[in-house]
Amino acid sequence: RSADPTDSRLTVGKRLTKDLILSYYLDLSAKEGEDENSGSLEYRLTRYLSILGRGGDSGEIGLELNLRFQD
C-alpha cells in the first residue's frame, strides 16, 4: 500500500532483551480487508543481520532476513 498523508498508525514497542524487540501496530485508517492490528518480533543475530517475523489480523505471517550496511 502506498503512503498516504491521511493514514494514521499507532506503534508501541518494547526491547525485551539486548537483541529482541517486540512491536505492536494499530492502523487507525485500515480499510476493509486490511490488517488493523499487527505485530512484529525482531531478533538481531549480529550487528548487521537480523530476522523479522510479522503477522496481523488477516492471518498472514511473514519472515524477513535483514542485512544492514552501516558502521
Explain this structure.
By secondary structure, the chain is mainly β. It has no helices and five strands. The protein has strands at residues 9-15, 20-27, 37-44, 49-56, 61-67. It has a five-stranded antiparallel beta sheet with strand order 1-2-3-4-5, with no helix packed on it. Strand 1 and strand 2 form a beta hairpin. The chain is elongated and about 40 Å long. The mean pLDDT is 88.
What is the global morphology? Answer: elongated
Task: Identify low-pLDDT runs.
Answer: none
Instruction: Give the number of DSSP strands.
Output: 5
With strands numbered from the N-terminus, the spatial order across the biggest sheet is 1-2-3-4-5
Helix/strand structural class: mainly beta
Level of helix content?
Answer: under 10%
Mean pLDDT: 88
Query: Can you count the helices?
Result: 0
Largest sheet: 5 strands, antiparallel
Strand content: over 45%
Characteristics of this structure?
elongated, 0% helix, mainly beta, 71 residues
Brief rundown of the structure:
The chain is mainly β and 71 residues long. It is built from no helices and 5 strands. The protein has a 5-stranded antiparallel β-sheet, with no helix packed on it.
Any chance you could write out the topology, listing elements then pairs?
Elements: E1 9-15, E2 20-27, E3 37-44, E4 49-56, E5 61-67
Antiparallel strand pairs: 1-2, 2-3, 3-4, 4-5
